[in-house]
Amino acid sequence: MKVIYPGSFDPLTLGHIDVIKRLDNMFDEVIVAILINEDKKSLFTLSEREEMIKEELQAYNITNVTIKSFEGLLVNFAKEENCKIIARGLRLVADYEYEKNIARINSSLYEGLETIFLLANTNYSFISSSGVKEVASFKGNISPFVTKNVEKRLKEKYNY
Q1: pLDDT digits (tens, 9 = 90+) for 31-73
Q2: Under a CB-based contact definition with an 8 Å cutoff, are residues 8 and 129 in contact?
Q3: Is 84 in the active site?
Q4: CA pair distance 127, 6, nearest whole angstrom
Q5: Which of 36, 98, 120, 157 is positioned for an S-S bond with 71, CB 3.0–4.6 A?
Q6: Of the candidates 49, 58, 68, 50, the residue with the CA atom closest to the CA atom of residue 3
Q7: What is the pTM of this model?
Q8: Candidate list 8, 42, 129, 133, residue with the active-site label
Q9: Residues whose CB falls within 8 Å of the CB of residue 100, separated by 6 or more in sequence, listed in order
Q10: Torsions phi, psi for 32 (to 5 deg)
Q11: Distance CA 87, CA 77 (A)
Q12: Residue 70: strand pairing partners
């Protein structure tokens, strides 16, 4: 069985890695789908985000994960991949409300599409990519939130 785990991964956090590892244990094939959104200014380029994810997959010896990117509607990407399961991580109750509505819209656009929700590990439930970028922009300690590889890349972006 195949699952799509979509996100911007800008940057990849320990929470993302935790979800990927858990999905890897549950599914035969995991597609980490990087959203390309031109309206949203990303800190990292698409190729940089792909590289970060590849580095961590190798470091954690995760082998049945494919990294792909997509623009536009997730349901169209899911149709192209012939995949009927989307996975989303939930950190907070507010995440559930938002994700529940997106899941309902998606299932109305693609019959049979299911969205599963994984509760964030409590060690990572407060971590967000935007929060990590904000801390990094002020040259704060980001080591509790990202791997050493990602930390190095963030420090290069913010010149510290």
Answers
A1: 999 999 888 889 999 999 999 999 999 999 998 999 999 999 9
A2: yes
A3: no
A4: 17
A5: 36
A6: 68
A7: 0.95
A8: 129
A9: none
A10: -85, 110
A11: 14
A12: 35
